[in-house]
Protein backbone atom coordinates (compact mmCIF):
# COMPACT_ATOMS: atom_id res chain seq x y z
CA UNK A 1 0.00 0.00 0.00
CA UNK A 2 1.38 3.40 -1.01
CA UNK A 3 2.21 5.76 1.82
CA UNK A 4 0.42 9.08 1.88
CA UNK A 5 1.30 12.44 3.39
CA UNK A 6 -0.59 14.73 5.72
CA UNK A 7 -2.30 17.98 4.83
CA UNK A 8 -0.22 21.15 5.43
CA UNK A 9 -2.71 22.09 8.18
CA UNK A 10 -1.12 19.30 10.24
CA UNK A 11 1.62 21.68 11.37
CA UNK A 12 -0.67 24.58 12.21
CA UNK A 13 -1.06 23.43 15.82
CA UNK A 14 2.73 23.46 16.16
CA UNK A 15 2.98 27.02 14.83
CA UNK A 16 0.01 28.11 16.93
CA UNK A 17 1.70 26.98 20.15
CA UNK A 18 4.93 28.79 19.30
CA UNK A 19 3.40 32.10 18.25
CA UNK A 20 4.05 33.61 21.70
CA UNK A 21 7.79 33.08 21.21
CA UNK A 22 7.97 35.89 18.66
CA UNK A 23 4.87 37.95 19.47
CA UNK A 24 5.53 38.55 23.18
CA UNK A 25 8.84 40.43 22.63
CA UNK A 26 7.14 42.55 19.96
CA UNK A 27 4.36 43.54 22.37
CA UNK A 28 6.84 44.48 25.09
CA UNK A 29 8.83 46.70 22.74
CA UNK A 30 5.67 48.22 21.23
CA UNK A 31 4.29 49.23 24.62
CA UNK A 32 7.67 50.77 25.51
CA UNK A 33 7.53 52.80 22.23
CA UNK A 34 11.15 52.03 21.46
CA UNK A 35 10.99 52.03 17.66
CA UNK A 36 14.63 51.08 17.10
CA UNK A 37 14.22 48.06 19.34
CA UNK A 38 10.94 47.29 17.57
CA UNK A 39 12.72 46.98 14.22
CA UNK A 40 15.27 44.65 15.79
CA UNK A 41 12.50 42.57 17.36
CA UNK A 42 10.72 42.37 14.00
CA UNK A 43 13.85 41.03 12.33
CA UNK A 44 14.38 38.49 15.13
CA UNK A 45 10.74 37.44 14.98
CA UNK A 46 10.88 37.00 11.21
CA UNK A 47 14.03 34.88 11.54
CA UNK A 48 12.47 32.75 14.27
CA UNK A 49 9.29 32.34 12.21
CA UNK A 50 11.39 31.24 9.22
CA UNK A 51 13.18 28.63 11.34
CA UNK A 52 9.91 27.34 12.76
CA UNK A 53 8.37 27.19 9.27
CA UNK A 54 11.37 25.17 8.04
CA UNK A 55 11.05 22.77 10.99
CA UNK A 56 7.30 22.45 10.31
CA UNK A 57 7.99 21.67 6.65
CA UNK A 58 10.50 18.99 7.69
CA UNK A 59 7.99 17.50 10.14
CA UNK A 60 5.30 17.48 7.44
CA UNK A 61 7.65 15.83 4.94
CA UNK A 62 8.81 13.19 7.46
CA UNK A 63 5.29 12.12 8.45
CA UNK A 64 3.56 9.40 6.44
CA UNK A 65 0.60 7.08 6.89
CA UNK A 66 -0.90 4.10 5.12
CA UNK A 67 -3.81 1.72 5.61
CA UNK A 68 -4.01 -1.77 4.13
CA UNK A 69 -7.00 -3.71 2.81
CA UNK A 70 -7.64 -5.27 6.26
CA UNK A 71 -8.06 -1.84 7.85
CA UNK A 72 -4.73 -1.64 9.69
CA UNK A 73 -3.49 1.94 9.96
CA UNK A 74 0.22 2.67 10.33
CA UNK A 75 1.49 6.18 11.07
CA UNK A 76 5.23 6.92 11.07
CA UNK A 77 7.40 9.91 11.87
CA UNK A 78 11.11 10.18 10.99
CA UNK A 79 12.62 13.39 12.34
CA UNK A 80 15.54 12.81 14.66
CA UNK A 81 13.62 10.08 16.49
CA UNK A 82 11.50 7.28 15.13
CA UNK A 83 7.86 7.25 16.16
CA UNK A 84 5.48 4.66 14.74
CA UNK A 85 1.89 3.92 15.69
CA UNK A 86 -0.33 1.08 14.53
CA UNK A 87 -4.10 0.77 14.94
CA UNK A 88 -6.28 -2.06 13.68
CA UNK A 89 -9.87 -1.61 12.61
CA UNK A 90 -11.01 -4.14 15.24
CA UNK A 91 -9.44 -1.95 17.95
CA UNK A 92 -11.27 1.18 16.82
CA UNK A 93 -14.28 2.29 18.90
CA UNK A 94 -15.18 5.43 16.96
CA UNK A 95 -14.06 7.68 14.15
CA UNK A 96 -15.03 11.28 13.46
CA UNK A 97 -14.34 13.53 10.48
CA UNK A 98 -14.71 17.28 10.96
CA UNK A 99 -14.63 19.87 8.19
CA UNK A 100 -14.96 23.42 9.54
CA UNK A 101 -15.36 26.22 7.04
CA UNK A 102 -11.65 27.12 7.01
CA UNK A 103 -10.69 23.48 6.52
CA UNK A 104 -13.18 23.10 3.66
CA UNK A 105 -11.75 26.15 1.89
CA UNK A 106 -8.30 24.55 2.09
CA UNK A 107 -9.56 21.04 1.20
CA UNK A 108 -8.59 19.63 4.62
CA UNK A 109 -10.33 17.36 7.14
CA UNK A 110 -9.60 16.58 10.78
CA UNK A 111 -9.89 12.84 11.49
CA UNK A 112 -10.03 11.73 15.13
CA UNK A 113 -9.63 8.02 15.90
CA UNK A 114 -10.80 6.65 19.28
CA UNK A 115 -9.14 3.33 20.23
CA UNK A 116 -11.33 1.06 22.34
CA UNK A 117 -10.56 1.18 26.05
CA UNK A 118 -8.14 4.13 25.86
CA UNK A 119 -8.49 7.83 26.60
CA UNK A 120 -5.69 8.70 24.19
CA UNK A 121 -6.90 9.53 20.70
CA UNK A 122 -5.13 9.79 17.36
CA UNK A 123 -5.75 12.97 15.35
CA UNK A 124 -4.77 13.23 11.68
CA UNK A 125 -5.04 16.25 9.38
CA UNK A 126 -5.69 14.88 5.90
CA UNK A 127 -7.10 16.01 2.62
CA UNK A 128 -10.84 15.49 2.19
CA UNK A 129 -10.31 12.63 -0.26
CA UNK A 130 -7.79 10.85 1.99
CA UNK A 131 -10.02 11.28 5.05
CA UNK A 132 -12.92 9.60 3.28
CA UNK A 133 -10.62 6.86 2.02
CA UNK A 134 -9.35 6.18 5.55
CA UNK A 135 -12.87 6.10 7.01
CA UNK A 136 -14.10 3.68 4.34
CA UNK A 137 -11.15 1.36 5.00
CA UNK A 138 -11.41 1.41 8.81
CA UNK A 139 -15.23 1.36 9.02
CA UNK A 140 -16.67 0.58 5.58
CA UNK A 141 -20.21 1.67 4.80
CA UNK A 142 -21.62 -1.41 3.06
CA UNK A 143 -25.29 -2.47 2.94
CA UNK A 144 -26.23 0.47 5.12
CA UNK A 145 -29.80 1.10 6.25
CA UNK A 146 -30.06 4.90 6.11
CA UNK A 147 -32.58 7.30 7.53
CA UNK A 148 -32.88 11.01 6.66
CA UNK A 149 -35.13 13.17 8.86
CA UNK A 150 -37.87 15.02 7.02
CA UNK A 151 -39.22 18.41 8.03
CA UNK A 152 -36.77 18.88 10.89
CA UNK A 153 -34.70 21.44 9.00
CA UNK A 154 -37.71 23.62 8.15
CA UNK A 155 -38.95 23.52 11.74
CA UNK A 156 -35.49 24.39 13.10
CA UNK A 157 -35.11 27.36 10.76
CA UNK A 158 -38.65 28.56 11.54
CA UNK A 159 -37.93 28.52 15.26
CA UNK A 160 -34.63 30.25 14.62
CA UNK A 161 -36.33 33.04 12.67
CA UNK A 162 -38.91 33.65 15.39
CA UNK A 163 -36.23 33.69 18.06
CA UNK A 164 -34.13 36.12 16.02
CA UNK A 165 -37.03 38.58 15.86
CA UNK A 166 -37.56 38.37 19.60
CA UNK A 167 -33.84 38.93 20.19
CA UNK A 168 -33.92 42.07 18.04
CA UNK A 169 -36.86 43.36 20.06
CA UNK A 170 -35.00 42.73 23.31
CA UNK A 171 -31.93 44.48 21.91
CA UNK A 172 -34.05 47.50 21.06
CA UNK A 173 -35.41 47.54 24.59
CA UNK A 174 -31.94 47.39 26.09
CA UNK A 175 -30.65 50.23 23.89
CA UNK A 176 -33.66 52.32 24.80
CA UNK A 177 -33.10 51.70 28.50
CA UNK A 178 -29.44 52.70 28.24
CA UNK A 179 -30.44 55.95 26.41
CA UNK A 180 -27.27 56.48 24.38
CA UNK A 181 -28.88 58.81 21.82
CA UNK A 182 -30.22 62.35 21.82
CA UNK A 183 -34.02 62.60 22.33
CA UNK A 184 -34.84 63.37 18.66
CA UNK A 185 -32.85 60.42 17.29
CA UNK A 186 -34.18 58.18 20.01
CA UNK A 187 -37.77 59.11 19.23
CA UNK A 188 -37.23 58.38 15.54
CA UNK A 189 -35.54 55.04 16.26
CA UNK A 190 -38.25 53.71 18.58
CA UNK A 191 -41.35 55.27 17.05
CA UNK A 192 -42.63 51.89 15.84
CA UNK A 193 -42.23 49.84 19.03
CA UNK A 194 -45.45 48.02 19.90
CA UNK A 195 -47.28 48.36 23.19
CA UNK A 196 -45.60 45.31 24.70
CA UNK A 197 -42.14 46.71 23.96
CA UNK A 198 -43.13 50.10 25.39
CA UNK A 199 -44.46 48.46 28.57
CA UNK A 200 -41.27 46.41 28.99
CA UNK A 201 -39.07 49.42 28.34
CA UNK A 202 -40.98 51.34 31.03
CA UNK A 203 -40.89 48.68 33.74
CA UNK A 204 -37.72 46.67 33.07
CA UNK A 205 -34.52 48.14 34.55
CA UNK A 206 -31.57 48.58 32.20
CA UNK A 207 -29.63 45.63 33.73
CA UNK A 208 -32.58 43.28 33.34
CA UNK A 209 -33.12 44.27 29.72
CA UNK A 210 -29.48 43.58 28.89
CA UNK A 211 -29.64 40.31 30.83
CA UNK A 212 -32.60 39.22 28.74
CA UNK A 213 -30.74 40.27 25.60
CA UNK A 214 -27.76 38.12 26.61
CA UNK A 215 -30.00 35.12 27.24
CA UNK A 216 -31.80 35.66 23.94
CA UNK A 217 -28.55 35.99 21.98
CA UNK A 218 -27.10 32.82 23.52
CA UNK A 219 -30.32 30.91 22.88
CA UNK A 220 -30.37 32.23 19.31
CA UNK A 221 -26.76 31.12 18.80
CA UNK A 222 -27.61 27.68 20.18
CA UNK A 223 -30.56 27.36 17.81
CA UNK A 224 -28.41 28.52 14.89
CA UNK A 225 -25.79 25.91 15.70
CA UNK A 226 -28.40 23.17 16.05
CA UNK A 227 -30.08 24.16 12.79
CA UNK A 228 -26.71 24.19 10.98
CA UNK A 229 -25.86 20.73 12.34
CA UNK A 230 -29.27 19.37 11.33
CA UNK A 231 -28.82 20.42 7.70
CA UNK A 232 -28.28 17.48 5.32
CA UNK A 233 -28.37 15.10 8.28
CA UNK A 234 -28.34 11.33 7.65
CA UNK A 235 -27.97 8.44 10.08
CA UNK A 236 -27.27 4.84 9.07
CA UNK A 237 -26.50 1.39 10.43
CA UNK A 238 -24.46 -1.46 8.98
CA UNK A 239 -23.60 -4.86 10.39
CA UNK A 240 -20.55 -3.45 12.15
CA UNK A 241 -21.16 0.20 12.99
CA UNK A 242 -23.48 3.16 13.34
CA UNK A 243 -22.89 6.37 11.46
CA UNK A 244 -24.20 9.87 10.94
CA UNK A 245 -23.34 12.76 8.68
CA UNK A 246 -24.53 16.34 8.39
CA UNK A 247 -23.76 19.99 8.82
CA UNK A 248 -24.17 23.13 6.75
CA UNK A 249 -21.11 25.26 7.61
CA UNK A 250 -19.25 22.91 9.95
CA UNK A 251 -19.63 19.51 8.29
CA UNK A 252 -18.97 16.37 10.24
CA UNK A 253 -19.21 12.61 10.05
CA UNK A 254 -19.23 10.10 12.89
CA UNK A 255 -18.90 6.31 12.84
CA UNK A 256 -19.25 4.13 15.96
CA UNK A 257 -18.33 0.44 16.18
CA UNK A 258 -21.30 -1.61 17.42
CA UNK A 259 -19.13 -4.02 19.40
CA UNK A 260 -17.56 -1.13 21.34
CA UNK A 261 -20.70 0.87 22.17
CA UNK A 262 -20.78 1.90 25.83
CA UNK A 263 -24.25 3.35 26.38
CA UNK A 264 -27.09 5.27 24.81
CA UNK A 265 -28.16 8.46 26.56
CA UNK A 266 -31.67 9.84 26.10
CA UNK A 267 -31.70 13.40 27.48
CA UNK A 268 -34.95 14.89 28.71
CA UNK A 269 -35.45 18.58 29.42
CA UNK A 270 -38.40 21.01 29.58
CA UNK A 271 -37.96 21.64 25.84
CA UNK A 272 -38.18 17.92 25.04
CA UNK A 273 -41.36 17.57 27.08
CA UNK A 274 -42.89 20.47 25.11
CA UNK A 275 -41.82 19.07 21.71
CA UNK A 276 -42.58 15.44 22.53
CA UNK A 277 -39.19 14.14 21.31
CA UNK A 278 -35.76 13.58 22.82
CA UNK A 279 -32.18 13.64 21.51
CA UNK A 280 -30.30 10.34 21.77
CA UNK A 281 -26.52 10.41 22.25
CA UNK A 282 -24.48 7.22 21.80
CA UNK A 283 -21.03 6.82 23.39
CA UNK A 284 -18.33 4.44 22.18
CA UNK A 285 -15.01 4.23 24.00
CA UNK A 286 -13.92 7.75 24.97
CA UNK A 287 -15.95 9.32 22.14
CA UNK A 288 -18.74 11.47 23.65
CA UNK A 289 -20.19 13.39 20.69
CA UNK A 290 -21.91 16.72 21.25
CA UNK A 291 -24.26 16.01 18.35
CA UNK A 292 -27.08 13.50 18.94
CA UNK A 293 -27.32 10.41 16.83
CA UNK A 294 -31.00 11.15 16.23
CA UNK A 295 -34.05 12.87 17.69
CA UNK A 296 -36.52 10.22 18.79
CA UNK A 297 -40.22 10.12 19.63
CA UNK A 298 -41.38 7.46 22.05
CA UNK A 299 -43.83 6.12 19.47
CA UNK A 300 -41.13 5.96 16.79
CA UNK A 301 -39.60 2.56 15.97
CA UNK A 302 -36.39 3.80 14.37
CA UNK A 303 -34.38 3.77 17.62
CA UNK A 304 -35.07 0.05 18.06
CA UNK A 305 -33.85 -0.51 14.49
CA UNK A 306 -30.58 1.27 15.23
CA UNK A 307 -30.08 -0.17 18.74
CA UNK A 308 -31.90 -3.49 19.13
CA UNK A 309 -32.66 -4.26 22.76
CA UNK A 310 -32.59 -0.62 23.85
CA UNK A 311 -34.48 -0.26 27.14
CA UNK A 312 -35.55 2.71 29.23
CA UNK A 313 -35.59 2.96 33.04
CA UNK A 314 -39.05 2.63 34.64
CA UNK A 315 -41.09 5.81 34.79
CA UNK A 316 -42.36 5.29 38.33
CA UNK A 317 -40.67 7.43 41.04
CA UNK A 318 -38.23 5.63 43.31
CA UNK A 319 -38.46 5.15 47.08
CA UNK A 320 -36.98 8.33 48.60
CA UNK A 321 -36.99 7.16 52.22
CA UNK A 322 -33.53 7.83 53.63
CA UNK A 323 -32.27 9.43 50.41
CA UNK A 324 -29.61 12.10 50.96
CA UNK A 325 -31.13 15.57 50.64
CA UNK A 326 -27.80 17.52 50.70
CA UNK A 327 -26.36 15.46 47.83
CA UNK A 328 -29.18 16.60 45.55
CA UNK A 329 -30.14 20.08 46.75
CA UNK A 330 -26.94 21.72 48.03
CA UNK A 331 -25.27 22.34 44.60
CA UNK A 332 -28.17 24.55 43.48
CA UNK A 333 -29.55 25.48 46.91
CA UNK A 334 -26.47 27.34 48.15
CA UNK A 335 -26.20 29.81 45.20
CA UNK A 336 -29.99 30.18 45.13
CA UNK A 337 -30.07 31.13 48.82
CA UNK A 338 -27.14 33.51 48.32
CA UNK A 339 -28.88 35.24 45.40
CA UNK A 340 -32.10 35.59 47.38
CA UNK A 341 -30.16 37.11 50.27
CA UNK A 342 -28.45 39.57 47.93
CA UNK A 343 -31.84 40.41 46.42
CA UNK A 344 -33.27 41.22 49.85
CA UNK A 345 -30.26 43.39 50.68
CA UNK A 346 -30.32 45.21 47.33
CA UNK A 347 -33.95 46.12 47.89
CA UNK A 348 -32.80 48.64 50.49
CA UNK A 349 -29.24 49.44 49.40
CA UNK A 350 -29.22 49.26 45.57
CA UNK A 351 -32.77 48.90 44.17
CA UNK A 352 -31.56 48.95 40.54
CA UNK A 353 -30.02 45.49 41.02
CA UNK A 354 -33.09 43.90 42.59
CA UNK A 355 -34.77 42.73 39.38
CA UNK A 356 -31.56 41.35 37.75
CA UNK A 357 -30.82 39.43 40.95
CA UNK A 358 -34.37 38.08 40.88
CA UNK A 359 -33.74 36.79 37.35
CA UNK A 360 -30.57 35.00 38.49
CA UNK A 361 -32.43 33.63 41.52
CA UNK A 362 -35.12 32.30 39.20
CA UNK A 363 -32.47 30.38 37.21
CA UNK A 364 -31.13 28.73 40.35
CA UNK A 365 -34.70 28.04 41.48
CA UNK A 366 -35.24 26.17 38.21
CA UNK A 367 -32.09 24.17 38.98
CA UNK A 368 -33.60 23.37 42.37
CA UNK A 369 -36.69 22.03 40.59
CA UNK A 370 -34.40 19.86 38.48
CA UNK A 371 -32.66 18.65 41.66
CA UNK A 372 -36.04 17.69 43.09
CA UNK A 373 -36.81 15.76 39.91
CA UNK A 374 -33.53 13.89 40.29
CA UNK A 375 -34.23 13.25 43.99
CA UNK A 376 -37.49 11.54 42.99
CA UNK A 377 -36.31 9.65 39.91
CA UNK A 378 -32.57 8.85 40.03
CA UNK A 379 -31.75 5.17 40.26
CA UNK A 380 -30.37 2.06 38.55
CA UNK A 381 -32.36 -0.94 37.31
CA UNK A 382 -32.14 -4.12 35.26
CA UNK A 383 -34.67 -3.88 32.39
CA UNK A 384 -35.10 -6.69 29.85
CA UNK A 385 -31.59 -7.92 30.51
CA UNK A 386 -30.10 -4.42 30.10
CA UNK A 387 -28.59 -2.31 32.85
CA UNK A 388 -30.37 1.07 32.86
CA UNK A 389 -29.90 4.12 35.02
CA UNK A 390 -31.29 7.62 35.40
CA UNK A 391 -29.50 10.68 36.76
CA UNK A 392 -30.13 14.41 36.80
CA UNK A 393 -27.52 16.90 35.60
CA UNK A 394 -28.61 20.54 35.63
CA UNK A 395 -31.78 20.92 33.58
CA UNK A 396 -31.37 17.53 31.86
CA UNK A 397 -32.61 14.16 33.07
CA UNK A 398 -30.46 11.42 31.52
CA UNK A 399 -32.09 8.05 30.75
CA UNK A 400 -29.16 5.71 30.04
CA UNK A 401 -29.17 2.19 28.62
CA UNK A 402 -25.86 0.36 29.04
CA UNK A 403 -24.95 -1.45 25.81
CA UNK A 404 -21.60 -2.98 26.84
CA UNK A 405 -20.99 -5.68 29.48
CA UNK A 406 -21.37 -4.47 33.07
CA UNK A 407 -18.81 -1.65 33.50
CA UNK A 408 -16.55 -1.13 36.48
CA UNK A 409 -18.60 -0.10 39.52
CA UNK A 410 -17.42 1.97 42.48
CA UNK A 411 -19.61 2.33 45.58
CA UNK A 412 -18.96 5.13 48.06
CA UNK A 413 -20.77 5.41 51.39
CA UNK A 414 -20.58 8.03 54.08
CA UNK A 415 -21.37 6.93 57.68
CA UNK A 416 -24.84 8.45 57.30
CA UNK A 417 -25.45 6.66 53.98
CA UNK A 418 -24.27 3.35 55.47
CA UNK A 419 -26.72 3.79 58.36
CA UNK A 420 -29.68 3.97 55.94
CA UNK A 421 -28.23 1.34 53.57
CA UNK A 422 -27.67 3.68 50.64
CA UNK A 423 -24.65 4.29 48.43
CA UNK A 424 -23.37 6.45 45.57
CA UNK A 425 -22.55 4.39 42.49
CA UNK A 426 -19.97 5.43 39.87
CA UNK A 427 -19.98 3.48 36.61
CA UNK A 428 -16.69 3.64 34.67
CA UNK A 429 -17.00 2.63 31.02
CA UNK A 430 -14.20 1.68 28.60
CA UNK A 431 -12.30 4.82 27.72
CA UNK A 432 -12.65 6.30 31.21
CA UNK A 433 -16.16 7.75 30.72
CA UNK A 434 -18.02 7.90 34.06
CA UNK A 435 -21.64 8.15 35.18
CA UNK A 436 -22.67 8.70 38.79
CA UNK A 437 -25.96 7.76 40.44
CA UNK A 438 -26.53 9.25 43.88
CA UNK A 439 -28.00 7.72 47.01
CA UNK A 440 -29.12 4.35 45.64
CA UNK A 441 -30.81 1.85 47.97
CA UNK A 442 -28.55 -1.17 48.42
CA UNK A 443 -31.47 -3.56 48.84
CA UNK A 444 -32.68 -2.69 45.33
CA UNK A 445 -29.44 -3.86 43.71
CA UNK A 446 -29.39 -7.66 43.97
CA UNK A 447 -28.09 -7.93 40.40
CA UNK A 448 -24.97 -6.02 41.50
CA UNK A 449 -24.44 -8.33 44.53
CA UNK A 450 -25.04 -5.77 47.25
Automatic annotation (TrEMBL):
Residues that span the membrane, as ranges: 20-36, 42-60, 155-175, 203-224, 325-346, 352-372
Q: Which UniProt keywords apply?
A: Membrane, Transmembrane, Transmembrane helix
Stated name of the protein: PH domain-containing protein
Record organism: Faecalibacterium taiwanense
